[in-house]
Amino acid sequence: MTLVLFLASNRFLTEAFLRENPLLTPLGILFVVDWKTPPWQALSVVSAGLTVGAVFLLDWINIEYEEGVKQSDAGLVAAAERKLRFVVWLTRLRFVLVVVFQLVVGGQALLYFNSRSYWFPVPASVTMRAAWLYGDRMPEPQCHEAR
Length: 147
Hints:
By secondary structure, this protein is mainly alpha-helical. 74% of the residues lie in helices and 0% in strands. It is built from 6 helices and no strands. Helix 4 runs antiparallel to helix 5. The mean pLDDT is 77.
């Protein structure tokens, strides 16, 4: 769902993609659509892509392993085990990306709730980096009455 919603919201619902142009070819769409992705979205899309990729790789490795066992081919079994180690590395990378994504979401939530009730002042350098990271999803500070 993450991959489908990302593609739908960022690629297919943009004005550039929906613009009528009779001379636009399928390859031309690659040059018309704005491919700039906010970093926080890239984390979720890459981790979702690694999840889907790991599932297909594991299925492929399982078929190769079972075929190697069935044929008593030690080379095929060893190749499947090497590929399995690669998938383990990919899933560890995916786990790190998910943890980083959760930290980014936690930072955004902290900035959001701080903008509502003003718990502490946010330095300008943090605001600048957060604006780069969150883009148009950056929480705007609200004015509060003195009590």
